[in-house]
Design goal:
Blueprint: E1 5-11, H1 20-28, E2 32-40, H2 51-56, E3 60-63, H3 74-88, E4 93-97, H4 104-112, E5 116-121, H5 127-132, E6 135-138, H6 163-184, E7 191-192, H7 193-202, H8 215-220, E8 226-231, E9 234-239, H9 249-266, E10 277-278, H10 280-288, H11 301-306, E11 312-317, E12 320-325
Parallel strand pairs: 1-2, 1-4, 2-3, 4-5, 5-6
Antiparallel strand pairs: 7-9, 8-9, 10-12, 11-12
Length: 326
């Protein structure tokens, strides 16, 4: 199928030269631009911007002087040439580039002659001219698809790490800060923060992966652990607390012993005068307080109390085990 023949007429008085390439590229995607004419008074300095487009896109510059001050003769000259092309019968599409409403009658006449008319202009184009065309292309809206925005480069943005990995790195940094202050701190425990930072880097750690842009901001986020002071531009820190010690086994057992004593004090299930209490009552009370001896490695209450012979005495009557506190 032969390409459709396009007759292009540009009103240079009403359209900026910055749209030149866009006009040609748009129309060449529709067919063959066999007529390329641009109209204006080329003695005007304001139209000299079109010179490069005229050369690059083989436009035929039609000189139209202003016959009277304040009057634009371009409209009439362009209209006469367009009608000549219409009568020649070689064009399939007319492309009129302007914002001027004066071309509205020409568009209507071309359409009556069976022509497809493409109007091209910008946001200032008159409504009557837009509506008269078969199609109007707003040159202010780029025909090129927008390029994707380049990715933001944020070197200091921390990488997302798993919670367990984060906790591990946090602990490593705290350990180094404590050890450095302990070994190298002055009489009051203060040590150079940048020197501690060098120790951290030795094991390839960086507070940035934890969301901090500096080690100073890191220690400032833990006011209960570190005190910071500055001398000029030099930053010192010291540790306020030591590494929390894990609870001793006795500390974990203490709530269980308290339950045993509480139950023994509240109940005396044997009338033998020795104060023995049914051990099953302890299990009920422990469940109310959400305590479990299984978490401590004991499979039953009988095994638990028997493991502390200096604290508890036991007595079995039938199938029931009783105990009392010593």
């Amino acid at each position: 199928m032969a390409a459709k023949k396009i007759a292009l007429f540009i009103d240079a008085d009403n359209i900026s030269a910055k749209f030149g390439k866009q006009i040609i590229d748009t129309l060449e995607s529709r067919g063959e631009i066999f007529i390329r004419r641009i109209y204006g008074n080329w003695e005007k300095i304001s139209l000299h911007g079109w010179n490069e487009c005229i050369l690059n896109f083989s436009l035929r510059a039609v000189q139209q002087p202003d016959f009277a001050a304040g009057k634009n003769a371009t409209d009439m000259s362009l209209t006469i040439d367009a009608m000549d092309v219409l009568y020649g019968g070689h064009a399939n599409i007319f492309a009129l580039v302007s914002n001027d409403s004066d071309f509205t009658p020409l568009v209507i006449r071309l359409r009556e002659g069976g022509m497809n008319v493409i109007g091209m202009g910008n946001d200032n184009a008159s409504i009557s001219f837009r509506n008269a065309c078969n199609e109007f292309i707003n040159l202010d809206k780029s025909i090129e698809p927008p390029k994707p925005a380049p990715p933001l480069i944020t070197p200091s943005t921390p990488k997302v790490i798993a919670s367990s990995e984060r906790n591990k790195k946090l602990q490593q940094i705290h350990n180094i800060l404590r050890e450095a202050a302990k070994v190298h701190g002055d009489a009051k425990g203060f040590f150079l923060l940048n020197m501690a930072g060098m120790e951290i880097k030795k094991i390839k750690l960086d507070v940035k992966v934890l969301g901090y842009d500096s080690l100073q901001n890191f220690v400032a986020d833990f006011p209960k652990l570190y005190e910071v002071k500055k001398s000029g531009n030099v930053v010192y820190y010291r540790c306020l607390t030591s590494e929390p010690k894990p609870k001793s086994p006795d500390a974990k057992l203490q709530p269980i012993h308290e339950v045993l004593r509480e139950v023994a004090k509240a109940h005396k299930d044997l009338n033998d005068g020795d104060g023995f209490t049914d051990l099953t009552r302890v299990g009920q009370k422990a469940r109310e307080k959400k305590l479990s001896i299984r978490a401590l490695g004991y499979s039953s209450w009988s095994k638990f109390v028997s493991n502390f012979p200096k604290l508890y005495k036991t007595k079995k009557v039938g199938s029931i085990l009783y105990y009392r506190c010593c």
